[in-house]
Amino acid sequence: MGVRLEGIENHTLDITCIVLAGGKGLRLGRDKVQETVGADNLLQRVLSQLAPFNRDIIIVTAGDKSLPPFNGYQRSRVVADIYPGKGALGGVYTGLAASSSQYNLVVACDMPFLNQALLRYLMGLSAGFDLVVPRLGDLVEPLHGVYSKSCLVPMERMLKRDNLEVRGLFELVSVRYVESDEIDRFDPQHLSFYNVNTEADLEKARQMVMKDVKL
């Protein structure tokens, strides 16, 4: 059964959630997914924001990578990269290939402040597009979007050519950009797109949680 999602139009869509957790954390110097922000590790924080959608959750990781504990998500499963070492593009491809849904919400595991209302809005816009992705000026957020399985064929071609820039996909598929004024309705501080990449990012995220920033 599909889940009712509110966007510009109302559609009942079958949505799977995909969490990319295979990054090496090179800038941080260690595996970022193991780090905690507040009481939970980064993966647990992301899963807690996706759980209310009551959809299947696919966690994509490198085959040799261990994940931190995450509890209470019976509809989640872990899959290993089909194209190891191919970065985020390979991770998104793996998630889409493993999914049974036409539309798939894709987020990174290092986004501790996801906004459920914004995610719901993106999902509600999905019908009729291959990709729905936020855009803030010239900055696009490809790891906070909704991908249809129609992206699999062009993504596979890119991977086989070792063209690993996710933004390269945008020229090959039908894209619905979600602009700043739309995002501001749900997340005026744009914290949804806050990534933990460095030690400073991690410390700032922890301070925001400690100060009870309203997210």
Defining traits:
215 residues; alpha/beta; Spore Coat Polysaccharide Biosynthesis Protein SpsA, Chain A; eight-stranded mixed sheet; two-stranded antiparallel sheet; 6 helices; 26% helix; 24% strand; globular; disordered N terminus
Strand residues, percent = 15-25%
Helix content: 25-40%
User: What is the CATH top level name?
Assistant: Alpha Beta
**How many individual domains?**
1
Low-confidence region ranges: 1-11
Question: What do we call the CATH topology?
Answer: Spore Coat Polysaccharide Biosynthesis Protein SpsA, Chain A
- What does the overall shape look like? globular
Order of helices and strands: EEEEEHEEHEHEEEHEHH
Main sheet specs:
8 strands, mixed
At the fourth CATH level, what is the homologous superfamily? Spore Coat Polysaccharide Biosynthesis Protein SpsA, Chain A
CATH architecture: Alpha-Beta Complex
DSSP strand tally? 12
Instruction: Report the total helices.
Output: 6
State the separation between the terminal residues, measured CA to CA: 30 Å
Derived from helix and strand composition plus strand pairing, the structural class reads: alpha/beta
Structure description:
The protein is an alpha/beta fold and 215 residues long. The protein has a single domain (3-210), classed as Spore Coat Polysaccharide Biosynthesis Protein SpsA, Chain A (Alpha-Beta Complex), CATH 3.90.550. It is built from six helices and twelve strands. The strands form three sheets. Strands 3, 6, 7, 8, 9, 10, 11 and 12 form an eight-stranded mixed beta sheet that branches. The protein has a two-stranded antiparallel ribbon with strand order 1-2. Helix 2 runs antiparallel to helix 4. The chain is globular. Residues 1-11 have low confidence and may be disordered.
